[in-house]
Design a protein that fits this description.
By secondary structure, the protein is mainly β. Helices cover 0% and strands 58% of the residues. A hairpin with a 2-residue loop joins strand 14 and strand 15. It is built from no helices and 18 strands. The chain folds into two domains: 110 residues, Jelly Rolls (Sandwich); 69 residues, Jelly Rolls (Sandwich), CATH 2.60.120. It is globular and about 45 Å long.
């Protein structure tokens, strides 16, 4: 097990693909053979961003997306065929990057986290840990983001304190056990294919 504490000063900023806003990039991975880190070489990415006005989402063919509101409430994603309801914070929605989506903000601006992966390159999951308790973690990369205040977790008997807006990156080569001790954490899990 390898753990790395990522702090807000370690995060980078990048524009949305459509230029309508700015991501705070928390962690990600790109194809090793690519000379540039861009949307074409993306394997996976975990980022936060404010949504301050209704508008279209970026068109991202071949990218699977998971999203969760971590600040504010009342977000609805509308496509021509369905709605993705994120009105309540810490609700995860999954959608394909090629779907045409326009946001509706029913109660003002929100802050969201996004976990994105190239389809076929990785399996991804996104969950809010709100209640103390234990859960298994499979081999892969796991990000524990303190979205709302400080939190404490236990990994295989070792305790970790994560300050507000910091992220504990956990890289596992074998299954492990995670327990939320206190606070609230967002858990992003990535398992690369192959």
């Amino acid at each position: 097990m390898k753990t790395t504490l990522l702090k807000p000063e370690d995060y980078t900023r990048s524009p949305w693909k459509n230029g309508g806003g700015v991501f705070t990039d928390i962690a990600g991975a790109y194809r090793a053979d690519s000379p540039v880190k861009d949307w074409n070489s993306l394997l996976w990415r975990f980022a936060s961003t404010p949504i301050v006005a209704p508008g279209p989402f970026s068109h991202m063919p071949g990218i699977d997306r998971l999203q969760m509101v971590v600040g504010g409430r009342g977000l609805v994603l509308k496509s021509p065929t369905q709605e993705f309801d994120e009105r309540e914070p810490f609700t995860t929605v999954r959608f394909a990057g090629e779907i045409e989506i326009v946001t509706a903000l029913e109660a003002g601006p929100v802050e969201v986290v996004n976990l994105m992966a190239r389809r076929g390159a990785a399996e991804i999951a996104l969950a809010a840990l709100r209640e103390p308790g234990e859960r298994p973690l499979l081999a892969g990369t796991h990000l524990l983001y303190a979205a709302r205040g400080d939190c404490r977790i236990r990994l295989d008997g070792d305790d970790f304190a994560i300050s507000h807006e910091c992220t504990l990156k956990v890289e596992l080569t074998a299954a492990s056990s995670l327990a939320l001790v206190s606070g609230l954490a967002v858990l992003a899990s990535i398992r690369l294919a192959g």
